[in-house]
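Researcher: Please translate sequence to structure tokens.
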Amino acid sequence: MRLRVKMIQLGMALGFTTVTSCRTPMPPPLRLEAVDREAVVKKAAAHGLVPVSSGDPGIAVDQRYATADNAFRRVLYPAGFPVLISAPTAGKLAVANAALRPRGLHLLVWDAYRPPEVQWRIFQLFQSENYVADPRKKWSKHCYGRAVDLTLADGKGQAVPMPGAFDDFTAKASATYTGNDPAVRRNLELLQKVMRDAGFTVYVDEWWHFTDLSCKTLKIVRRVNRNREKGQASSRSSMARAAAARFSGSVPGMRERLPKVTTLMAR
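Model: Translation complete:
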């Protein structure tokens, strides 16, 4: 709870968050006017967030949501908005990156801390809770700065082959590779190994998404409801296609009263 309050205070300090809890209506999308990056970094530091490369300058950044080069074809962050993450999580990213250096590889980060306004906008655009948490019910770990979307890049800064593209909401998004390309399998296994060794958990539905295991709101479910998982596995692709069919750029209306859900579990 205290962590969520800190993130709310951070958003207010940066001048965009008006949401006070996950029970209140989601505010409008972020204003997209350019921001002073250094000013944002300074304010964020007071709330425990730092640039993702603060622990290791060798970690590269390609902030997809700051441009229209993403699955939603929308600019979701204001120009100059830094890619932030919690300070302890930044240290873990540095550990993972150090493990890659002897191989001539490094981490390439696409997204990390995500204001709830952005999470809400993404959910509006793609309404599938298998892939995008509904912030009216629960906050994504991104909203706490404890989750990161990333891949591996080579010495030339080029992303290495992986099962699919970032935010490819199809079977290719799975963290379990079933294809026949040995390079893809090798790259994915290496990414998962260095991230696990550094203290992250893999999100099974998105190969690029990792959560800091020390996140206080994270619960690791060790016993899986096999029937439920079987049903989800068989229908996941069809659900994604149905969500993609709804993704036409229109924005659904918000409920006047929000569900009374207190859980913070979200990817």
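Researcher: Any highlights?
Model: The first strand starts at residue 49 and ends at 51.
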